[in-house]
Amino acid sequence: MPSPTIRTIRRRAARLTVADIRSLATLLVVAACLAAALLSGVPAALDKALSDARFMLGSQAASGEIVLVDIDARSLGEVGVWPWPRRLHADLLHAAAEAGAARVAFDVDFSARTGPEDDAAFAEALASAGPETFLAAFVQHDPASGAMLASMPIATLLSASWPVSINVPVDDDGRVRRFPLSIDVDGETIGSMPAVLAGREAGTDDFGIDHGIDAASIPRVSFVDLLHGRIAHGALAGKTLIVGASAIELHDLFPVPGAGIVSGSTVIALAAETLKQGRALVPWQPPLALVPLVLALGVWFAVRQGLRRSLLAAALAALAFEAVAAWFYLDRAVMIETAALQLSVAAVALWSLVREFDLRQFRLWVSRVETRNTARLLERVVDDGFDAIVIVDEVGRIMRINDVARRLLDLPPDGAPGSLADLPPAFVEPVREAMASTPETGSRGTPVRRIARQGDADDARILEYAVSPFWLEDRRRAGGEGHRLRYASLVLHDVTDRERAQERLRFAAFHDSLTGLPNRRALEEQLDTLAADGAPVALLAFDLDRFKGVNDALGHATGDAVLTETARRAATALPPEATVFRIGGDEFLVLLRSADRERARRLAERVVAEVGRPYEVNGHRISIGTSVGIAAEVDGCRDASVLRRRADVALYQAKRTAAGPVVEFDLSMDAARLERLALERDLTDAIEAGAFELAYQPQIGLRSGAWTGAEALVRWRHPERGLVSPAEFIPVAEETGLIHRLGALVLHAACRDALRWPETIKVAVNVSPLQFLTGDIVGTVRSALAASGLDPRRLELEITESAFVGENHRLAGIFEDLLALGVTFALDDFGTGYSSLGYLHRFPIAKIKIDRSFVTDIPGSRHSMAVLRSVVVLADGLGIRTIAEGVETPNQADILRELGCGEGQGYLYSRPLDIERASALFAGGGEERERFEGTERRAMPALV
Ligand code: C2E
Ligand code: CA
Ligand code: CA
Fold this sequence. Notes:
Layout: H1 4-39, H2 42-55, E1 66-71, H3 73-79, H4 86-99, E2 103-109, H5 116-127, E3 132-141, E4 148-151, H6 155-158, E5 162-165, E6 178-180, E7 182-185, E8 188-191, H7 193-197, E9 206-208, E10 220-222, H8 223-227, E11 240-245, E12 253-256, E13 260-263, H9 264-276, E14 282-284, H10 290-332, E15 334-336, H11 339-384, E16 388-393, E17 398-401, H12 403-408, H13 425-436, H14 439-442, E18 450-454, E19 461-473, E20 484-494, H15 496-510, H16 520-533, E21 538-544, H17 547-554, H18 556-573, E22 578-584, E23 587-592, H19 597-612, E24 615-617, E25 620-622, E26 626-631, H20 640-656, E27 662-664, H21 667-689, E28 692-701, E29 707-718, E30 722-724, H22 726-736, H23 739-754, E31 762-766, H24 769-773, H25 777-788, E32 795-799, H26 809-821, E33 824-830, H27 838-842, E34 847-850, H28 852-857, H29 862-878, E35 881-884, H30 890-899, E36 903-904, H31 915-923
Parallel strand pairs: 1-10, 1-11, 2-3, 2-11, 3-5, 14-15, 26-27, 29-31, 31-32, 32-33, 33-34, 34-35, 35-36
Antiparallel strand pairs: 3-4, 6-9, 7-8, 12-13, 16-17, 16-20, 18-19, 19-20, 21-23, 21-26, 22-23, 24-25, 28-29, 28-36, 29-30
Helix pairs in contact: 1-11, 4-5, 10-11, 17-18, 18-19, 21-22, 23-25, 25-26
This protein binds ligand C2E and calcium ion (2 copies).
């Protein structure tokens, strides 16, 4: 379906084209009609009508010079029927002469002879000195021969008078509007009576009679009155008389514009008056080119201005044309033929009318088509849409329901639409509710989307739906207020997949993908809800000892398996009210919904026991231990984040102190934590300030009793705390990354100091595993040796087993590089940690430092004795030297010597000494053994 915009544009385009074509066609038809009209007699007839109308405007009076002598009904009554004896005309002529008339024109047929006396008498009267006389001559159609016959007065009469033509041209409509100036009678041009009487003999044209001259103003006398001298004295003096028949019986009558039906002599008189007054009307036909011009202008105007204005303009144009024409007629005696123009104007008016009507019809048609299309479109939308649609009317009938809806609502696919009650109950009430709303309350905003479940619990479909009421006008009760039909539409989508996907996402968001345990977010949520409810809570935090080692040494797959197994063990070991969360890495947390601290401790011990059992993973047998930190309520604080932090602090304590694998948080730990924070801060400052010193603890050959070397032990002279033990700050330095700078300082200082000792005395420097794993230990050692110039063979690096856990090529390369420099390695704290003797084969260890814990135990612990013995034997076999740490008593020294241990280090021989004292000691050759007390209390020179 095209978008609404596109549809509108298309519709507009269609309407424009079709409407234009139709409008143009109409124009062509109208123009054709106009052309046909112009070619037919229509304009001529119209022009006559228009000019006749114009005569009404004129109201000139006759000049009075011409007087009609009417052979009227009274004359006929007195004299007797026509024709009269010609003597009467002679008598009349005499009477006219007596009345002083200047000219007498007879509009009487004298072409036939009558009695000789009469003719002679008339001829004699014509000839006797009197008024100038004119006799009528005319041509007429001979029905017998079909030729035109001339009727001239008989010759006797003509000897003393002038012939003048009286032929009157009659228009198609029978009216007389024109008069010729002359006619051709038998090859002779005879001036017409009006022309001659007006003194305008010349010319052959017709001229238009100005019927605006009032015929009634032409003076007239009755023939018999003149004959018998019954006229006012002097009324005819100097006048021109026209004698003619006016009696109806004589049939000399003509219809004329304006005056109606008048006698032939009246026509002549009017024509003569026209000429005398200089009003001979000249017709003027405006150029035909004006017709298309008017048409074009009119169409242009109509298209722009619409029907009303164009009709008004047409009327004004018509009036204007007529006004101009009237002025020309009145002022210039020019008769403009405006018909063609008026017809053009009318054509334009007609066209705009037709066009408007036509457009309306057309629009109606378009809207009907659109309505039909819209209805079809909506049906398609309803039937083919992805959405399920149900439309219900006021009384609960289902007006329309599409297939999707039937499917979703479990309705039979091709049943009757049915009623609202057939829908699942979940939808009935919302539809009723929507139906109850009024147009004012109901149609606001978008309908609310709601969720409903449809079907059996297991594979229930989740449907999202919206109900919206709508109103339609009631056709049967149109016009009235409130007569609206109420409907409601129910639109549904199946959102099962979406919802399920969201459920999965929600699960993923709150669960750890590896172990399936709830994750940190889940923990935070649960803690927050429990805290809000005021429920009792205890948290148990634990992580896996040496997990990083497993991961690095045996690979991530094994690490993952260990984590999964840990999760399983913890979950099975714990009761239902305890939930295990994986917080990240090897960190786990148990949420216990109970404040019973004893119970929490028991559960913690169960976790330690479970995780403490060896793991069998991918063919490896792995021993992993754990410690647990417990945070129960100690001060009424239930804040989730506080509890979590406390559990962490307790765990930290459990791992870093000898408190045991399970440590319960108490408030003093918070203080310890704060102290540690302060320590971190101070440590940074201390490195800047150079507050570190080195103490040297001498090492001795157990058999020879000679000094063999000294171990450098770093000291921190804290401005407030005094000397701080490395056991306290080295871990902090490792965690903060300061260990690299600190380690470099120690190496430089130790190499430099060792130069002060005899060449047989080696210097042992503790190197943190971190320095191997992340720092540039090779570069540091090389620069320390270079800076001091110490023989590399005198430098021994003490490393612990944890340096090997990240065993890889890089590490191997580092060892090789260091060996190449010439330094040796001692394995520190041997016997704790992994105690994996495999390292001894693979790494170039020159010396094993047996941990103090074994030394302290001799000779009481058989286990320690056994370990000591086997270590010494094994090391011997590998050609590795041994040294025992923490030798405090001569007895320990004796036993170690007997076991075959090579060297000893401990308070028995010397406490760690400052460089001066150590140097003095070694210079003394071994006799002067430095003993115990107070050694370190003396000030030592600072490092660097
Ligand atoms: P360690 O390497 O095992 O050093 C021996 C520790 O045992 C020293 O403690 C030393 O004072 C102490 N000790 C020596 N003989 C006896 C004895 O007979 N009885 C008892 N009870 N203790 C004895 P210190 O100096 O506090 O060092 C603690 C640990 O700090 C060292 O343990 C070492 O791991 C670390 N450390 C010391 N200096 C450095 C250093 O410069 N760099 C690094 N990375 N670690 C250092
Ligand atoms: Ca050491
Ligand atoms: Ca040690």
